[in-house]
């Protein structure tokens, strides 16, 4: 495994074969995918930290979904990747959908965990409030946000039985820089839905039965708009899908890639 800095983005690259590009969500990093790496055996795995997240620098341009899409396309170009399977979580699924439409030549398939088209209108002020809290209180504010996410975005089963998962979610959010996290929140709050009917590649949608962001009914509705897509709902799982149900997520990915062989 090597970590490179490409266009100010920290990118882990591992393996050979067809490329798989992994896009984390808000408060995430390349480590969102560490629990499911077994599903990518035989692939070239590309795991970036999005601009302003984790180890990647905050660019001078304000963060936005368009900036994420264009940055990822540029990173793939510099790596010589011309076609890739795309795997994404949460906010990253919005990025992936736009990437699949704007750069359709790059995307071979989509596997979307805790997916959403865009935040609901009633949810946008809350995301903006998170940005304000992160700026106002700095690292203390980010910690406060992490604690709220643990309560609201993980399943009852995870809270009761998976203390390491709880620690991992907490660490993932708390390691974000306050300004980077604030701008990431603003990027999500300003996100607009992609025209997903234009997506024509094999698509897997995975969510949890207790996911309040990628709610099962909403994910089923997305699946109805993407021709030939498959929807899976995992029991006892909240929004941090690959952290809460890693074995099940890996199995879903393995079966998905096998179906395309």
From TrEMBL:
Q: Name one GO biological process term.
A: acylglycerol catabolic process
* Occurrences of domain AB hydrolase-1 (ranges): 19-246
Query: One GO CC annotation, please?
Result: membrane
Could you tell me the keywords of this UniProt record?
Answer: Hydrolase
Q: Which domain of life is it from?
A: Bacteria
Q: What's this protein's name?
A: Alpha/beta hydrolase
What would you give as a GO molecular function for this chain, any one? monoacylglycerol lipase activity
Pfam families for the chain: Abhydrolase_1
Is Hydrolase among the key words of this record?
yes
Q: Which InterPro entries match?
A: AB_hydrolase_1, AB_hydrolase_fold, AB_hydrolase_sf, Epox_hydrolase-like
């Amino acid at each position: 495994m090597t970590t490179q800095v490409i266009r100010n983005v920290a990118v882990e690259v591992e393996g050979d074969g067809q490329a798989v590009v992994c896009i984390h969500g808000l408060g995430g990093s390349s480590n969102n995918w560490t629990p499911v790496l077994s599903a990518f055996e035989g692939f070239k795995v590309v795991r970036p930290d999005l601009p302003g997240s984790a180890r990647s620098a905050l660019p001078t341009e304000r963060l936005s979904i368009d900036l994420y899409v264009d940055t990822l396309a540029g990173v793939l170009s510099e790596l010589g990747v011309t076609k890739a399977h795309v795997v994404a979580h949460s906010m990253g699924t919005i990025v992936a959908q736009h990437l699949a439409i704007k750069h359709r030549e790059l995307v071979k398939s989509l596997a979307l965990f805790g997916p959403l088209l865009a935040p609901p209108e009633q949810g946008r002020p809350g995301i903006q409030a998170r940005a304000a809290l992160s700026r106002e209180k700095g690292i203390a504010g980010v910690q406060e946000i992490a604690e709220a996410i643990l309560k609201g975005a993980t399943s009852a089963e995870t809270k009761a039985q998976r203390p390491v998962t709880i620690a991992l979610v907490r660490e993932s959010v708390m390691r974000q820089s306050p300004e980077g996290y604030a701008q990431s929140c603003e990027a999500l709050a300003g996100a607009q839905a992609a025209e997903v009917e234009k997506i024509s590649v094999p698509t897997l949608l995975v969510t949890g039965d207790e996911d309040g962001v990628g709610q099962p009914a909403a994910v089923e509705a997305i699946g109805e708009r993407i021709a030939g897509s498959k929807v899976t709902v995992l029991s006892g799982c909240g929004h941090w899908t690959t952290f809460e149900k890693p074995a099940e997520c890996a199995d879903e990915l393995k079966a998905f890639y096998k179906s395309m062989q």
